[in-house]
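for the writeup, i need someone to sanity check this before i put it in the appendix. the sequnce is what the collaborator sent (i think, or maybe the updated version? ugh). structure was predicted straight from it, no edits. if anything looks off just tell me and ill rerun, i have time this weekend
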Amino acid sequence: MKRQERYDYLLKYFRERMPHVSTELEFGSVFQLLVATLLSAQCTDKRVNQVTPALFSRYPDAKSMALAEPEEILEYVKSVSYPNSKSRHLSEMSRMIMEVFNGEVPTEMNDLIKLPGVGRKTANVIQAVGYGKSAIAVDTHVYRVSHRLGLVSKDADTPAKVEKELCRHIPEEDRADAHHWLLLHGRYVCQSRLPLCDRCPFTDFCPKQLDNSKLR
């Protein structure tokens, strides 16, 4: 099966079964989505959702969080991965939003990645989920599934390269959903250590017999 045919099959499958999907992170505003996404780096959404209710109750917006010292934020996020650096980033990020962006989370990629702790993946989540833009965030799940299913070439050895190849084949109107389709497939079916191939609807064209793709 040619690569574009794989995309056509996969996109048709998900459009019919999961037409509208979104992040499993819980949030009440674009700022809270940004905070939750930053906290979710190398941490499960389940863990993040356990700590954000108290965090957002105390610091619901950039204005309130900008007044907090990292040590104060740390008390709310100390159970997530890398809590010290993340609490520092949250404090610095909130202050920059207030001082540079008039209290609003910016919408453009070049502005988002200026925020402390915000990389391209997080920025794409904000654009797609927060602002409804055509963007694909490449996390570890999306990266893994894209390679295992042969959606991208072997040369796509960085998240940025994977993102570029995915955007080349996925229509703009599907990109925000496609991020979640691939992510959820990787989280619950095409898992890292033990992929559940018996539950996968793409086994007919998954190139698992080539290049040990299931072990990547």
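The chain has two domains: 3-21+136-215, 30-130. Confidence is low (pLDDT under 50) at residues 212-216.
thx in advance!!
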